Amino acid sequence: xxxxxxxxxxxVGPTHNYGGLxxxxxxxxxxxxxxxxxxxxxxxxxxxxxxxMDMGFQQGVLxxxxxPDVAALRRLGFAGSDAQVIQQAAKEAMPLxxxxxxxxxxxxxNAATVSxxxxxxxxxxxxxxxxxxxKYHRSIEHPTTSRVLGAMFANQQHFAHHxxxxxxxxxxxxxxxxxxxxxxxxxxxxxxxxxFGRSAFDTRYPAPQKYPAxxxxxxxxxxxxxxxxxxxxxxxxxxxxSVIDQGVFHNDVIAVGxxxxxxxxxxxxxxxxxxxxxxxxxxxxxGGTFQSVCVPRSAVTVDDAVRSxxxxxxxxxxxxxxxxxxxxxxxxxxxRVWQYLQGLTGTGGVIRExxxxxxxxxxxxGGGPACLRLxxxxxxxxxxxxxxxxxxTAPLYDSLTQWxxxxxxxxMTENDLADxxxxxxxxxxxxxxxxxxxxxxxxxxxxx
Length: 448
Ligand code: SUG
What we know:
The chain is of the alpha/beta class. The protein is about 35% helix and about 20% strand. It is built from 19 helices and 15 strands. It has helices spanning about 25-30, 40-55, 70-75, 80-90, 95-100, 135-140, 140-150, 215-225, 240-245, 270-285, 300-310, 330-335, 335-345, 360-365, 380-385, 395-405, 415, 420-435, 445, and strands at about 5-10, 60, 110-115, 125-130, 160, 180, 190-195, 235-240, 255-260, 260-265, 290-295, 315, 325-330, 350-355, 375-380. Strands 2-1-15 form a three-stranded mixed sheet, sandwiched between helices. Strands 3-4-5 form a three-stranded mixed sheet, covered by helices on one side. Helix 10 (about 270-285) links the parallel strand 10 (about 260-265) and strand 11 (about 290-295). Helix 2 runs antiparallel to helix 16 (about 395-405), helix 4 packs across helix 5 (about 95-100) and helix 16 runs antiparallel to helix 18 (about 420-435). About 55% of the residues are buried.
C-alpha cells in the first residue's frame, strides 16, 4: 500500500504579534513590541503550503485558535462582559492580555507528537497533544488543539487521540519539535527519536544553566508509552544543555530528520556517537540504513544556526530517493550558512536541492519552516479517512487567501490587542474558517 508524509501547516491567526513572550527564544525576545503584519504572516505561510503542494507533496492545513482567549483571562480574575475583560486586562496587566492574544498555535510542530500506525501496538495513528507547559501563552493551546485534531482525524478506527500530559514542568512536553522518525518507507515500522532537554526525576542528567529546558525525559517516555511504541523502535537522546543556553529551545532548531537521514549540528546532542550507533542498529532491525549528515561547528556555529534557522528546515523525500531542503530566507543572508548549503548540495550526497522561502513574519518570533508544520505519516487508507476539508487543494488555497484578505489586519501593536473590536473580528473570521475547513464547532465561542 502507498504511504505518505503529509505536512499539516499551521495557518497563522489574525492576532499574530511580537509579544516577547518566549524567554530562551532569541528571536522572540529581540523583536518584542515591534509592530507585526498578521495578513502578511498568513499569506507567507499559505504560499509555502501552495508551493509544496505544487511540487507534488501532500499538504494539509491546521486551523489557528480563538484569540484573545477571554476565558483564559477570566480564569485569571478579569470579569464583566468580554469587552470589559479585555479593557481591564489592557489597563492592569498588559503582558497577560498579550499572552492571551498570541497566535503561537501557528507553530504546529508543537501541537502534538504523532506516531504512525506502523509503529504502534494497536495499529492506529496516535496523537498526544503537547501541554506546552513551559510558557503560559502556549500552555493554553492544548484544549483547542485537541478539538481541532479530533475534527481533522475523526475516524476512531484509524486515529487515537491522547490528552496532553499533566500540566506541570516535570512533564513539560513540546510535541513533535523534539521528535523525529526514521524509516525506510513511511508505511513501514520505523525508529522514533525523542530528544529531551533535562530529566525531572533523575538528577544525574545535566541541565542548562540559563534558559529553560522545555522537554523532559519523563514526558517523552510517557508519550512513547501512550502510543504503544516498542522499546526496539525508540531512541532517547539528550540535547546538549549548552546549546539550549545559546537559544536552541527546541531540538528542531539544531537537527532535522527524514527517512533514513539525520541532518544535525556537531554540538546538538550529548553522547552523540552512542546515540548514532543506537539509531543505526535499531533502524537496521527494521530494514533501514541510517545515514547522518553532521554540520561541523567550523563551518556553521551554533549562533549561525540559531540566527539562520538552517536546521529548522523541512527535509523532504523526492520520488528518486534524493532529498530537498526547504529553508527560510535567513539562510541565504548568512554567508557561512549559504556557503555550507552550496557545498552540501554540490557533493552528490542525499540532499540535492535547497529551496528558500520568505517566512519573515513567523521567523521574527522564532518559527521557521519546520515549526510551521506537523508531519503525519499516513497510508492510503488512513489518508482517505482524514477530514478532506483540511487537505490543501488549489481551490482551498484560493478560498483561504481570500479569507485572509477579507479578515486580517496588516498591522498589529499592543494598542490593537487592547481593542475589543479585534475579538469580534477574530470570531467572525474563525467562524467562517470552520466552515471552509469543514471542522464543525471547535472554538470556545462556538461550543459554550
Ligand atoms: O514556543 N515563539 C514560539 C516559537 C516556536 C517554534 N517552534 C519550533 N521550534 N518548533 C515558542 O517560543 C513567541 C511569541 C511571542 O513572543 O510573541 C513564541 O511563542
